[in-house]
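# nightly structure sweep
# worker-07 picked up a monomer target from the shared queue
# config: single-sequence mode, recycle default, output format = structure tokens
# input follows
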Amino acid sequence: MSQSLKINGHLEARFEPIKRVFEASLAAGEEVGAAVAITLHGEPVVDLWAGHSDQAKTREWQEDTIANVYSTTKGMTAICAHQLVDRGELDLDAPVSKYWPEFAQNTKQDLPVRWLLSHRVGLPAVKELLPPEALYDWDAMVSALAAQEPWWKPGQAHGYHAVSFGWLVGEVVRRISGRSLGRYFREEIAEPLGLDFMIGTPDEHHERIAEMSAMAMPEPEADGPNLGAAMLMDPEGMLARAFMNPPSMALGPNTAEWRRAEIPAANGHGTARSLARVYGALANGGELQGVRVLTPQSIERCHTEQSRGPDEVLQISTRFGLGFMLSQGTRDTSFGPNPRAFGHPGAGGSLGFADPDTGIGFGYVMNKMGPSIVIDARAANLIEATYASLA
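# output follows
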């Protein structure tokens, strides 16, 4: 086997199918660099990495390589909110304006916090075109969202808040805790669990961040959505604004400004090992090695359906609990075969999820962007191999 196909790490013998799938994906050129990790009942059973951390393939992917995981970050943000619920500091049915008074603008004074977490609040985008630097300016983004009129009648429909989710939920966390979302996550989740995962990554860690490729565009489908075409047809519409406002979103993730900023729906940087560990805690009643992350009651809330059906933004069917995506029964929309599994994918391929029925915590990160809207085919293959190993 060539050096470029060397699979590093370890796994228990019964999970060998996962290694074979991972190796085949790398050999077929489906990956530049990637890592996959799994915990079972809180114990690490798979921890593999391979390939290269740069697109020119001059630097090997290392054990401590971290990658931008786009919307897989949303799960980490949701955990912070659920922890505040457990502590009695956040009421999901209270108005957002109870914690964030400025949010009451434009008839939003009575909208409950749970609608932020379930993508029902109608704020997937800011309509007014913002300056490029606003993307990295927390106060600018939350002020713009507080002033924004909902794009649909809140509670009557749902639509994916692709980037705004992080500022909306993160500002509630900040108002209650007095800490930014990134700091709260670091102090209350990452450090106690020993995670190598950051929302707002300091400069001293940038040298070990994987270089991401450009986003692969899906082939147009006769009977399916073409989001790129839809954005071009209506550049001032809700869809285009959701993904491209501020316009600096187009600069991508390989900049120091993106890496430093706290964008809690889209710019978490971490390892597959860390995703598997935190979701492993959630798959086991919310506790791991004496560290309580969430209560069993919160775990139940995480996978209780809040939204299902046509998505006003993505133009497909989506299903959400409180801050987490839920399975829909097809290969590209499911976290395995069990109904209580919950987690979050990221644009281009990354994924983390918990399965309370088997005690599985799963993490996958990569730096070659695929065309997936929900669950990438590479991740789906690894999920299938995981459950085949348990059979």
